């Protein structure tokens, strides 16, 4: 359907005409497209442009659906697109080599705006600013997070150095053992939202009241893990109102993170609560030594009754759990904060890497146009659902999807639309399952609160003495949580930090946030 449309529109070859004649802004798909009138091509058509896109994908070769997608993009934008996909284990090296030798694709993917080779390439003029090309890129503007643009202004000149590869930011809820809730006669409201007190009560019952009925005291309320760097942090920060850098309630600094605030007890209270739950065995005592994979295993095997996680994993988690215990059932639950609000910290800057236009690009505007097309309603429909005839057929005005397409290396990994939670839902999913999952994913996307630091790191925090001192925070946090230190010891370390580094750190962070916030 869409491919036919794209071809039909390119037949007319006038993009302006294409928008009016073939625009399909969310309306129902029509089967009988009027045939394009020929002869309109010519005057305003843009010349064909060749471009190479260098990116990191799971396969160096395009799959069938990838090829069909690229073809539809080429036809819609009058381009010839080549992909340069190094083996993913060697991507960084290949990218650096290209930057050094100047043998560059028109547009290249970088994993992060902090990437040292990216920052150098910007300084050297190898990566160019794209502000002027974004003027008419309404789709890129509409479907990127504001914070992503801030993260891409890396050169102190207020210019943007990349097209976001957006990731849909979520703040997930919790998986509960539904069969354990039933066994203990605990009801969850229809909207799946409970208070933090209810959450604490349920976790306590899961650890004390033998929810698996084996007569042994062998379960824990909540499964948690150490951070990837092995440090541990207090649990339930969302519920306790810890959302990173926000406007402060007063005091010396306009913006504050409770973790660094000598005048606030929010963070020490979170430490105290984690220590209490740890001591009482309400949270898994093995948590500090576990990683994410192990936490999932403990939950599926019935050692813990609650874990946090993505609502879209329902079928996978349920099937894995049922293999171990046929009684295994799942409920997905959100926990409101102490003020009764549905809020959760969104991580990152909305970027899952980004696309940087290089000084070798023969037509930078057209590179931006290609990405803008991918995010248009028509382009996005092909990216999300695939191409008619291959990924789905149209029968009785309805799309019938083929078996789950797995080889969407390029198709599903070029661009995303900010806040578009339907991305997480396979279009082939049954209506019944959609109705079960979509409301939960929607809540996880809509409840996000972003930390105002936008992943910015003050210069002082990159110095060796600072990095060395930082270990003291990890040490004291671990000690408090496992019961080897009083929570007041955190404030002692914080006081020391404040004297040595904090004033510089807090001022620099405040200046950064202030500058970005005032631009709005
Ligand atoms: Ca038991």
From TrEMBL:
Cross-referenced Pfam families: SBP_bac_8
Endpoints of the signal sequence: 1-23
Species per Swiss-Prot/TrEMBL record: Paenibacillus agaridevorans
Protein name: ABC transporter substrate-binding protein
Keywords in alphabetical order: Signal
InterPro entries, per the entry: Bact_solute-bd_prot1 (IPR050490), SBP (IPR006059)
Gene3D superfamilies xref list: Periplasmic binding protein-like II
């Amino acid at each position: 359907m869409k491919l036919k449309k794209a071809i039909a529109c390119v037949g007319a070859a006038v993009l302006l005409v294409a928008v009016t004649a073939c625009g399909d802004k969310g309306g129902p798909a029509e089967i009988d497209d009027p045939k394009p009138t020929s002869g309109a091509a010519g005057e305003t058509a843009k010349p064909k442009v060749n471009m190479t896109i260098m990116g990191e994908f799971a396969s160096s070769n395009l799959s069938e659906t990838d090829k069909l997608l690229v073809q539809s993009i080429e036809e819609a934008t009058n381009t010839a697109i080549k992909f340069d996909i190094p083996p993913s284990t060697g991507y960084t090296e290949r990218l650096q080599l290209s930057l050094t030798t100047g043998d560059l694709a028109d547009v290249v993917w970088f994993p992060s705006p902090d990437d040292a080779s990216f920052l150098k390439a910007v300084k050297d003029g190898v990566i160019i600013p794209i502000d002027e090309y974004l003027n008419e890129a309404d789709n890129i503007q509409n479907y990127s997070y504001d914070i992503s643009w801030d993260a891409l202004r890396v050169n102190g000149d207020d210019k943007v150095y990349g097209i976001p590869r957006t990731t849909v930011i979520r703040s997930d809820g919790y998986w509960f053992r539904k069969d354990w809730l039933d066994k203990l006669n605990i009801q969850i409201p229809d909207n799946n939202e409970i208070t933090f007190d209810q959450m604490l009560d349920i976790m306590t019952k899961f650890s004390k009241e033998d929810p698996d009925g084996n007569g042994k005291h062998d379960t824990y309320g909540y499964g948690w893990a150490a951070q990837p760097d092995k440090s541990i942090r207090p649990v339930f920060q969302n519920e306790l109102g810890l959302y990173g850098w926000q406007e402060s309630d007063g005091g010396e600094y306009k913006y504050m993170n409770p973790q660094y605030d000598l005048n606030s007890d929010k963070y020490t209270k979170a430490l105290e609560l984690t220590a209490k739950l740890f001591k009482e065995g309400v949270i898994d005592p093995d948590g500090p030594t576990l990683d994410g994979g192990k936490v999932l295993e403990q939950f599926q095997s019935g050692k813990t009754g609650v874990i946090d996680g993505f609502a879209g994993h329902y079928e996978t988690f349920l099937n894995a759990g049922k293999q171990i215990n046929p009684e295994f059932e799942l409920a997905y639950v959100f926990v409101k904060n102490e003020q009764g609000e549905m809020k959760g910290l969104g991580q990152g800057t909305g970027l899952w890497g980004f696309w940087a236009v290089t000084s070798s690009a023969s037509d930078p505007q057209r590179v931006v146009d290609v990405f803008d097309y991918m995010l248009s309603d028509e382009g996005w429909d092909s990216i999300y659902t695939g191409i008619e005839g291959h990924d789905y057929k149209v029968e009785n005005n309805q799309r019938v999807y083929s078996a789950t397409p797995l080889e969407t290396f390029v198709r599903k990994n070029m661009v995303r639309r900010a806040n578009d939670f339907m991305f997480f839902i396979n279009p082939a999913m049954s209506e019944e399952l959609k109705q079960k999952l979509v409301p939960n994913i929607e809540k996880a996307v809509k409840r996000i609160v972003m930390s105002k630091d936008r992943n910015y790191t003050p210069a002082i925090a990159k110095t060796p003495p600072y990095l060395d001192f930082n270990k003291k925070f990890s040490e004291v946090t671990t000690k408090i949580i496992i019961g080897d230190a009083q929570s007041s010891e955190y404030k002692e370390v914080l006081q020391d930090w404040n004297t040595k580094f904090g004033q510089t750190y807090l001022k620099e962070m405040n200046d950064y946030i202030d500058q970005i916030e005032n631009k709005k």
